[in-house]
Amino acid sequence: MPPAAATPRAGMLQGDGITCTLGLRVLFDRLSLRVPAGVTLVQGGEGTGKTSLLRLLAGELAASSGQLRIGTVDLATHPAAYRQQVFLADPRTQVFDQITPLAYLASLQARYPGFDAACIGGLIDGLSLSEHQHKPLYMLSTGSRRKVWFAGAVASGATVTLLDEPFAALDSRSMAFVRQLLTDAANNPLRAWVLADYEAPAGVPLAGVIDLG
For domain 13-196, which CATH number applies: 3.40.50.300, 1.10.10.10, 3.30.450.20, 3.40.50.720? Predict the structure, then answer.
């Protein structure tokens, strides 16, 4: 049996001595990090590995050495239990193109034990998705699709939530809504949010910064 799910504060993401390569390129060499509850920024310029780091933390990119764990749940020994505590959506994915935003959000409930169905209505309204919720995702603009992924991130209840450029392609109203939710997340002791972006989101308190240069 896998270890029990992480407890608040003690159960955030930890990495020790992680080395990861992609082809002949070394992406990370003996990387160690601690991600506490709240909001952590992964910062860096183009090509510095921000998205790759999120994929590594999600277990999508395999490390050649080192350890990743959430609380006592180790990725190498209990991969399914680890991934059940991590949310990451590829903003460019076409996997869900044929289903609606509501169907996508409903599909997350089976994967995440902490899924919060009660918050979906507020997310749909706050992200201006009401007129799009019954359309197949391929009909939505890039910004609207990104709103769906963000709604999934919030509703998942995942212990560790990974977001790649969460404000990209959003309208001003939705940006303000996302910023407010992240500000609230900064004070939540039960979840860790990791944002990959070029700069810190204005007004959102950060628990830490991982600077990739």
Answer: 3.40.50.300
